[in-house]
Design brief:
368 residues; elongated; alpha/beta; 2 domains; single chain; 15 helices
Length: 368
């Protein structure tokens, strides 16, 4: 097993979520210690491992885009003993299952051919290949050809984060860099693939909340790039840890999602708190909440949500009046000091995050 240090400059952080006002962090160069090793898998073994869930493809991974000809050519290459590109996998520390970082099109093609059904639901017969393979399904292969395919080797590079490291930053960045495909993955798409589990399901559930949908984009359809889910994650992380926040925001959210990916009491409480807070905001302010201009502002969102949630959690017996809440909200979003930390191009700097949240907490604490 080789130890690698990936010295990669992080791209400037962008606070733009959907139509959200932009801020950028300074590029930060970090060293990411990861272990990696090579392994050769037979095609038959890969298919079995995928069926057993030992190798899995994240749900958000790009849709299957190969057509029947492309898929047939890949299968034909294996039947002919030709070399094919390798795949990248990430090993999970807790389960030892393997997450597909790169190679999902090839692995899905193998699954489809072995089951006999292509992605479109039709029978998977090889096409645009040598005559002896034309219109042949997996079960229709001769004994020799089937053995050739079963025993064909795919090389895998397996990446493993040091289990003593506090997060999966190396795997995260590897995943991000290998899955550009013309359109870079959003940070939350990458998190969704790496930090899957209970927390991911909670975010997806909260993202369907009607009040939140009305505020975010007035649509019941979630953002395909998961930017709306990232805002919910941002609320939870800052509600719990805003006093300990250190930029970049991307790493802060990575660490929080990793630490809470399994069910715990804190997540259950925060889940209920998000619903109470966002529904009260919607009733009081409507679908223009968190906007100073037309765009939903992530900095206004995180500070207002944390400020009001703090009031709710500290005063569970208080019936917050909608008119009172709206008055305090309006005063806050017109407060010059607050706007300084919202309109700055450095909205995810430590001081800006902590200052605007402190101002929001103080403002909503005035609710009688």
């Amino acid at each position: 097993m080789l130890e690698a240090s990936l010295a990669l400059p992080l791209e400037p952080e962008n606070d733009s979520i959907s139509e959200i006002e932009v801020e950028e962090d300074d590029p930060i160069e970090s060293i990411y210690p990861v272990a990696y090793y090579g392994a050769d898998y037979t095609v038959d073994d890969l298919v079995k491992r995928m069926q057993q869930g030992k190798i899995y493809i994240p749900n958000f991974q790009r849709n299957y885009v190969w057509n029947i000809k492309q898929a047939s050519h890949f299968i034909e290459s294996l039947l002919l003993g030709l070399p094919v590109p390798g795949i990248f996998l990430a090993e999970e520390n807790d389960s030892q299952n393997l997450l597909v970082i790169d190679g999902s099109q090839r692995l899905r093609t193998l699954q489809y051919y072995y089951t006999g059904i292509f992605e479109d639901g039709k029978e998977f017969k090889l096409t645009d290949v040598q005559q002896r393979f034309m219109n042949i399904t997996y079960n229709g292969l001769s004994y020799g050809d089937r053995r050739q395919l079963d025993e064909s080797l795919l090389h895998a590079t397996i990446v493993k984060q040091d289990e003593f490291n506090d997060n999966h930053s190396g795997i995260y960045l590897t995943f991000e860099r290998l899955n550009t495909g013309g359109v870079s993955l959003t940070p939350q798409e990458v998190r969704s693939g790496i930090y899957h589990g209970y927390f991911k399901d909670v975010l997806a559930e909260l993202n369907r909340n009607e009040s939140w949908r009305a505020i975010y984009n007035n649509s019941s359809i979630p953002d395909k790039r998961l930017k709306d889910e990232e805002l919910i994650l941002r609320f939870m992380a800052l509600f719990d840890l805003h006093q300990d926040y250190k930029k970049p925001m991307r790493n802060f959210l990575n660490n929080y999602m990793e630490a809470n990916k399994k069910e715990n009491t804190k997540l259950v409480i925060n889940k209920d708190l998000f619903v109470k807070t966002i529904e009260l905001i919607y009733r009081s302010i409507g679908n223009k909440a968190f906007r100073i201009r037309k765009k939903l502002n992530a900095a206004v969102f995180d500070s207002v949500m944390v400020g009001l949630a703090t009031k709710i959690i500290n005063s569970s017996d208080v019936d917050i009046q909608e008119e009172t809440l709206k008055e305090i909200y309006d005063r806050l979003v017109h407060n010059e000091e607050f706007l300084t930390f919202v309109n700055t191009p450095r909205t995810t700097d430590d001081y800006a995050v902590k200052s605007r949240i402190d101002l929001a907490i103080k403002a909503f604490a005035e609710i009688p």
